[in-house]
């Protein structure tokens, strides 16, 4: 469950859906954000029919 008050960051451009979580974290860093600050980062596919969500819940697992 996602807690109330979590910041949601939407990617402005579609991504290559073959990317793994480490690559997605790099995209977040390149955009000037910290992927470990509790924000929920949302990426979409080129056709906008799928999304990938990266969210660090603080557990490290």
Would you kindly provide a written description of the structure presented here, covering whatever features stand out?
With 61 residues, the protein is of the alpha+beta class. The chain has one domain (8-55). Helices cover 16% and strands 21% of the residues. The chain contains 1 helix and 3 strands. The chain has one helix at residues 21-30; strands at residues 8-10, 40-44, 51-55. The protein has a 3-stranded mixed beta sheet with strand order 1-2-3, with helices on one face. The radius of gyration is 11 Å and the shape is globular. The chain starts with 7 loop residues before the first strand and ends in a 6-residue tail after the last strand. 3% of the residues are buried.
Structural descriptors:
3-stranded mixed β-sheet, globular, alpha+beta, 1 helix, 61 residues, 3 strands
Summarize the structure.
With about 60 residues, this protein is α+β, with helices and mostly antiparallel strands. The protein is built from one helix and three strands. It has one domain (about 10-55).
- Contiguous low-pLDDT stretches (5 residues minimum) are none
Class by alpha and beta content: alpha+beta
- Number of helix segments? 1
Using only CA atoms, what is the Rg?
11 Å
Strand content: 15-25%
Helix content: 10-25%
Query: For the terminal residues, how far apart are their CA atoms?
Result: 15 Å
Q: What is the succession of H and E elements?
A: EHEE
| Sequence of strands across the biggest β-sheet | 1-2-3
Overall number of domains:
1
Number of strands: 3
Summarize model confidence as the mean pLDDT: 87
**What is the 3D form?**
globular
Largest sheet: 3 strands, mixed
